[in-house]
């Protein structure tokens, strides 16, 4: 066999050994194992490695025997091949060990950096959590957070005091679960679609009765899915007591004022009708002024009574099928004298064959009196007022609109125009000032009929008030 064949055999043996070595080295996962196993593997391959295998040594000897005659020469050849193999193998082992060591040093360094970054993030999140919890604990209002299943996940001390429960007993459970008898929630006021509700807590002792207002907001994740709800609880017990006292006072005073007002009105009517005798033109003029102001006072008292009834939920409605056109005509007829005194032009635009609606006619007249009265009040002499009524078949409702050519309302005041006692300062009345509760009452009446009311206006461009009444079967 030629020397080229021997070199080929040696090269093949070295390649096989190196492949076996690399296969074992790739199984290492940490630098510690590399350092510990590297020397052991190297010694195993060098001392008792591939060439310690008898069959391998026998195969090499047979190949050498075919080309080398003398025994000493054969031993020398085998020794040289072994030395060459050992040196090359050691070089390969050291080179691969160094490369793997560098790779694992890079990996370990990266892992260490990642651990440091993760630890910093954890400490920052922990700090933010502690700050948030400190803020929540210091909030005077009760705060309750529930998950999508309605189970409590957070509750501050104020909520514990208000509800008479312990956070450790409620976390992970529904808020209303296992409430004691003295903590019974007996009343929840407010529609389900509203964000605010009133909760009345009644114990066995009346003096510990509480009324809470719960303002809730939905918690959504970044995908818009509901994952919970947060509720802020406020103790409004004293406020409710004061409101009740106020309503009772207003109702009682208003009723007490009605009796003398009726007597005064009757007396003035008798004098103005000259039933009691002749009066001079000057006397008639002053008595007429007194009677007009008496009527204004009577309207104010009626508004206060209506407001107290609405707040107490005691306003009654006598619903019956009615013609909107007749209601509008009746309202305009009652205000016709006032319209003429200001030389105003009132135009009606009533859609033909309007369907009847199931309403309390007197209450709708009250709404129209307020809207048309405001239009008369805030429109200068010789101005125009338009009253429209149309049937919106797609929505199944009748839309009534009152529009004037008066001073208008600034856009920033439109959201507040129906608030109680709100009066836009820019709308300077031309003759009669108001109390700021008429529009609030009109809004309540319309909404109790199932309708909507809103205003459209710009300063100096007149005002337009619109309300709707849904059709209802009789």
CATH topology of the largest domain: Heat Shock Protein 90
- The end-to-end distance, rounded to whole angstroms, is 119 Å
Q: What spatial form do the alpha-carbon principal axes imply?
A: elongated
Tell me the major beta sheet. 6 strands, antiparallel
Q: On the 0-100 scale, what is the average pLDDT?
A: 75
The number of helices is 11
Strand order of the largest sheet: 2-1-6-5-4-3
Low-confidence parts: 1-10, 19-23, 25-32, 48-53, 181-193, 427-432
CATH architecture of the largest domain: 2-Layer Sandwich
- Whole-number tally of structural domains: 4
Structural class: alpha+beta
Number of strands: 13
CATH superfamily assignment of the largest domain?
Answer: Histidine kinase-like ATPase, C-terminal domain
Keywords:
Helix Hairpins, disordered N terminus, 4 domains, 11 helices, single chain, alpha+beta, Beta-Lactamase, 6-stranded antiparallel beta sheet
Describe this structure in words.
There is one protein chain. The protein has four domains: 3-120; 142-235, 2-Layer Sandwich (Beta-Lactamase), CATH 3.30.450.20; 241-312, Helix Hairpins; 320-470, 2-Layer Sandwich (Heat Shock Protein 90), CATH 3.30.565.10. A hairpin with a 5-residue loop joins strand 12 and strand 13. Helix 3 packs antiparallel against helix 4 and helix 8 crosses helix 11. It is built from eleven helices and 13 strands. It has helices at residues 3-25, 31-48, 54-65, 71-138, 157-163, 167-170, 237-272, 281-312, 324-341, 361-378, 438-448, and strands at residues 142-147, 152-155, 185-189, 196-201, 210-220, 226-235, 320-322, 345-350, 357-359, 384-392, 397-404, 453-457, 463-470. The chain is of the alpha+beta class and 474 residues long. The strands form three sheets. Strands 2-1-6-5-4-3 form a six-stranded antiparallel beta sheet. A five-stranded mixed beta sheet has the order 8-10-11-13-12. The termini are far apart.
